[in-house]
Amino acid sequence: MDNYNEKLDLKIPEHVAVILDGNGRWAKKKHMPRTYGHMQGSKVVEKMLYEVDDIGVKYFTVYAFSTENWKRSDDEVKTLMGILRTYLKDCVKKSMKNNVRCRVIGRKDELSDDIIDAINNLEEETKNNTGLTFTIAINYGGRDEITRAVRKLSCEVARGNLKPEDITEDMISANLDTNYMPDPDLLIRTSGEQRLSNYLPWQLAYTEFYFTDVYWPDFNREELLKAIYKYNKRERRFGGVKED
Question: Which of 35, 186, 200, 231 could form a disulfide with 79 if both were Cys (CB 3.0 to 4.6 A apart)?
Fold first, then answer.
């Protein structure tokens, strides 16, 4: 359910999801390596956590590393994993200070042991925080997530605990990585690209999309508010038809 920010005179989406795109191209324009762009992009994530919390967003989900990102150069993947290691460690103290609950979605079992330990520690330390829920998608792919959910339900069918005809959308949703939060109200993708890139395909079925040419390292509060102003002009019908 949208919150109303009287100071801004805006309906604030409860859940904002973001595809953090353009780090590499931003760095290239500055004649810097792509890895520099990723480091700057991680700093913007930290700033955005404060901004979305300040205006009243309750859930903030970012696409940090996809299942396809392993195909990038070894140097870039190594840098991204290094940034994640540092971020996951630093995030504990900052999240406790700001009452942020942190979760990670994706195939954690394929990550290195130290990153898995850092994820488990971050989730455990912040699990009782009652403020903004911050979710990081790491080694995440939407089709993979749905496949894993179907496999879980298939096991229940094989055991005789569930009939195929009794499977519902709610059951599938309950077996997704995101079962603890509502579907996104607003998706923001930076850098001018206009596709989902295998990000939350099930959850984004009725989400409002906002695409901007701004590269993620240049994204700020002003750009966030532009997206929310656009969101306020949308009429969400969820498949229904408004009567004249």
Answer: 35
For residue 166, count CB atoms less than 10 angstroms from its CB and return exposed for 0-12, middle for 13-18, buried for 19 or more. exposed
pTM over 0.70: yes
Residue 116, both tokens? 């898995």
Residues 6+ apart with CB under 8 A from 183: 15, 203, 204, 205, 206, 207
Strands 10-12 and 15-19: unpaired
For residues 102 and 136, is the Cβ–Cβ distance under 8 A? yes
Which candidate, 180, 181, 229, 177, places its Cα nearest to that of 208?
Answer: 229
The verdict on whether 21 is a catalytic residue reads yes
Beta bridge partners of 17: 61, 187
Q: What is the pLDDT of residues 36-70, one digit of tens each?
A: 999 999 999 999 999 999 999 999 999 999 999 99
Tell me whether residue 220 is one of the annotated catalytic residues.
no
Q: Which of 2, 53, 69, 198 is catalytic?
A: 69
Question: Helix, strand, coil shares of the chain as percentages rounded to 5?
Answer: 50, 15, 35
Amino acid at 66: S
Of 95, 98, 121, 97, whose CA–CA distance to 108 is shortest? 121
- Tokens 């103290």 found at: 93
The Cα-based distances of 22 to 6, 29, 189 in angstroms read 33, 11, 10
